Amino acid sequence: MLSRAQIGLQAPLVRVEAHISGGLPRFAVVGLAETTVKESRDRVRAAIKNAGFEFPQGRIIVNLAPADVPKEGGRFDLPIALGILAASRQLRLQPDIWSQYEFYGELGLNGSLRDFRGALPVTLSARADRRILTVPRENRDEVCVVRESRILIANHLTEVIAHLTGAKKLPLEITGIQKPPPLFPADLLDVRGQHHARRAMEIAAAGGHSLLMIGPPGTGKSMLAMRLPGILPEMSEGDALETAAIHSLSTSGFSSHSWRVRPFRAPHHTASSVALVGGGSNPRPGEISLAHNGVLFLDELPEFQRQVLEALRQPLETGSIVISRAARQAEFPCRFQLVAAMNPCPCGHLGDPDVMCRCGSAQVQRYRDRISGPLLDRIDLQIAVARVPRALLRLDATAGESSAAVRTRVLAARQLQSARGIVCNAMLLEPEIRDYCVLDEKGTELLEQAMKRFSLSARAYKRILRVARTIADLAGTRDIAADHVSEAVGFRELNRARQTVDVVP
């Protein structure tokens, strides 16, 4: 019998072999099987008996090959049961038939099939090898999103056996069903004022840039962040499959309602490093991988543990995370768009015209030092979000642009980037920066002055160039002008704030 294990997003092939010999009754499962797999002995024994078959007496050895690949979960119950029935001659089939199928599913004591975690990665691998996948009905929505895959859905062990023997064939499922584009209930129409922040949101969406919003409590930072997915381009089918495969491995599992919807993850500031980047003895994806192709929102950024925030530095650069353990290693993609929010000081009212800030300069500096310079260098846009005038909060006040209007401009800018052969400007590599981020003499002089005045690093220099390129794309111009560079520099709020900290002593 053929099945697959799970190592990260990889699904290595596993051959389930069963051997029955004389002697005292014994049922052993070998092949680096974890506890959940070894517990299948009792489930399989009860399922075979309750399905109307005879459980063989004697010594039963089930081998899960290759022996050096770890196996976990209840997914191997079905192939183990079929292997025992074939070894006891209760299920007689030609050997070439077994090579056409892969079997998955946890068995109930009555022989019913239950869902298993990680069905989408095995479906992608089975499609590549052109095999027929047999899975429980509870996994149907998940596996059927994979176009051109061959899927059989079964509710019970007896249904699988009836199909294999030809007594009653299971129909192949229709796969790759297209759904209408998802609707985003959170709309920018709900945001009053905040023109500078809305502009930063548009630039972030158009170029895939990371964003940090700094402002007093109640200024709408979280509200703005939740509306970013609504102005992002729709995911391609390949990106949607990759994102869904990661969610398939998580504890929450795959949801058909989130298909082709860009994820929005907002972990609490008490989250650990493992919760954020992933880990465990058997590595699982963390929040940064669950936000793959979507948005990771970190509210109250300085309240996160410093080691947690530092763990973001490499993934922000590479777009992937390698989790290494003594026995195994797993790699997960994590091309997420970071959006963070923070108060300007411990009390939250620095620069607030309505409430006086009583934090000293040392307190403000310690608060901001919780976010390291290297991490700030990796955040493209850093903006101040001021308190909205009360007149704009009235229900009859004029609303701003809708998400649909902003999204139209974002899509136009993304099409320019796609024509250059890149996904988004935030992912521009060194050669591409040299080709597409050329400045005129005035722009070069302006950027050099900013580098010197604000003590910007080489990484910040390149990120300003990427942001300027996005601003030019939104303007529909081929060349980057000095005005574009000036606006990009203006989005480095914390770099400029380091020079002068205006507080009440």
Architecture overview:
The model is unreliable at 500-505 (pLDDT under 50). The protein is an alpha/beta fold. The chain has helices at 35-38, 40-50, 77-87, 95-98, 119-128, 140-143, 157-165, 195-207, 221-226, 237-249, 273-277, 287-290, 306-310, 313-318, 361-368, 373-377, 403-419, 430-436, 441-454, 458-475, 482-490, 493-497; strands spanning 2-4, 13-21, 26-30, 59-65, 101-103, 106-107, 113-114, 132-136, 150-154, 211-214, 264-265, 278-279, 284-285, 295-298, 320-324, 329-333, 337-342, 381-384. It is elongated. The chain folds into two domains: 2-165, Ribosomal Protein S5, domain 2, CATH 3.30.230; 188-497, Rossmann fold, CATH 3.40.50.
Named CATH topology of the largest domain = Rossmann fold
Which CATH architecture of the largest domain would you pick?
A: 3-Layer(aba) Sandwich
User: Percent of residues in helical segments?
Assistant: 25-40%
- Spatial order of strands in the largest sheet: 11-14-17-10-18
